[in-house]
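BUG: 3D viewer hangs when loading the predicted structure for this chain

Environment: internal workstation, default settings.
Expected: structure renders.
Actual: progress bar stalls at 90%.

Input used:
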Amino acid sequence: MSREKVLIVDDEEGILNQLRWGLQEDYEVLTASSPGEARRRLREERPGVVTLDLTLGCEGGPEDGLQLLAEIVDQYPLTKVVMVTGNDDPRNALTAIQRGAVDWYSKPIELDELRGILRRAFHVRSIEQLRGGPVLGGPKRYHRLVGESEAIRRVFALVERVAATDATVLITGENGSGKELVAHAIHSAGARRTGPFVPINCGAIPEQLLESELFGHERGAFTDAHRMREGKLELAEGGSIFLDEIAELPRQLQVKLLRFLQDKVVERVGGREQRKVDARVVAATNQDLKTAIAAGRFREDLFYRLSVVNIVVPPLRERGDDLRLLAEYFLDYYAKHHNRRIRGFTQAGLRAVQAHPWPGNVRELENRVQRAVILAQDPYVRPSDLELEAAPEEGPQSMQGARDEAEQRLLVEALTRNAGNITRAARDIKVSRPTFHDLLRKHGIEAGRYRKPDVPGQPEAAEAAEAEGDDAGEAGEARS
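Structure tokens produced before the viewer hung:
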């Protein structure tokens, strides 16, 4: 059985010899001391993982290493890259992760730690091989995240890369954009998924209680402290803690959190004993932390500790067709959850959804759709059910445009009325099934998106039976 291949790219001969010797029992080790030699090795050997010196042949600068990283990510998407650098500037590591590296490591090299990083990198690669490629071209759902726009797919891809590591992550984005779902996806996709996921909102707890919530307290530490209590950090042992609204953390607690990030130890309020805690930290904010640093409200050293990797969650207005996809997803979910026979949106309802600016992002969309599902009196959700104004229909630009628009609207309304059943929809508008299929292809409409069966598993069979009868009828008409 052939062994996995690791390519070591470094311009220091001593590093190449050390890693060749230290990793040869586990992997087939390939080496390259220049970008040109690395490109040849990649082309001929196709290694599964590459360790790449960030300052390769560039007198201390990162340009050559980052350029080679970009080439590997573009030309060999299944090859995972681990950046290795002696440069302590965390911004270079952040840049490397954002450009596609799966992990990074600073010199001097500790072989045991590097072996762990390589194992995680090969694990990520094996998952992508099973899925048929990187998540960027993948499905419409990733854990609890939903979407297919390029903007959200990039978030999916970055989440999958960082999930395989223990790096601290800072998630930024507007209120309601889904930052906690991203944090949960990082936890669920990584090795800590069997451990606890512990969220805490730093802006929702009074300052005098927040220290106890985070770090715990000993009995008698303050009034009403009648018993010892573990903090959220200790409760996250073996898992992840999600610090939402991290910009609201008071300055004195920023110092204490910084120490935890550096040493992984906690000291309860009123206690003297230090406890080692193995918990991954993921933080989120809707504020500009660099502005908060300039104003003296947030520590710069804590910012760099938190933002080893920064994931920016796009607002709903920048996610294109995800708006309709999310609206239909929430409608289907809450119709089942509340046991309501809601079939879909009217065309006016969809136009209202697409015209609304959604300042509250995904959270606002979810709340409006859930309320509409509960209150709607008809099987199809209207603008009034969503408490939105009806959007005016856009006028056609030409006679052909008018025909196409009317044709598309007729198809969608027929599919909506008939819950995605093509046979009944075709009969509804008095065309044959082959003609209906041609029209669907012409307008790029997927009938399956409108299917809402009353009894799971039966509509397809019923449609097939009806289709057989229709096809026979069409054949008879053709013969006559």
